[in-house]
Design a protein that fits this description.
It is built from five helices and no strands. The chain is mainly α and 100 residues long.
């Protein structure tokens, strides 16, 4: 399941910046800035998750991760060419919860 989840995640990492550049007119820099917030929460939550990983069953961590990915994916599904930079950045920030 982790392999499948990260395959979807990496597909999203590739497709979203391409869509921003080809359809929305973003430069590579701005597309990167819009998608970069996905890494903020994992950096902040890594010590917490590492500390409690042995105390909480890993299946619960995996379930929470997939729920966060699913919520972010449903948020992404509503995007069209009217989406703002702020909405893209916040949705990627929320997806970072699943990455952690």
């Amino acid at each position: 399941m982790l392999c499948l989840g990260y395959a979807v995640f990496f597909g999203n990492i590739v497709l979203l910046p391409l869509w921003l550049q080809t359809q929305m007119g973003y430069t590579a820099t701005w597309a990167g800035l819009a998608t970069a917030p996905v890494g903020i929460l994992p950096i902040l939550l890594a010590p917490f998750i590492g500390r409690y990983m042995g105390r909480i069953d890993l299946r619960w961590w995996l379930t929470a991760s997939f729920v966060a990915f699913a919520a972010a994916s449903f948020w992404f599904a509503g995007f069209n060419t009217d989406v703002t930079f702020r909405e893209i950045a916040w949705s990627r920030f929320a997806q970072g919860l699943g990455v952690a």
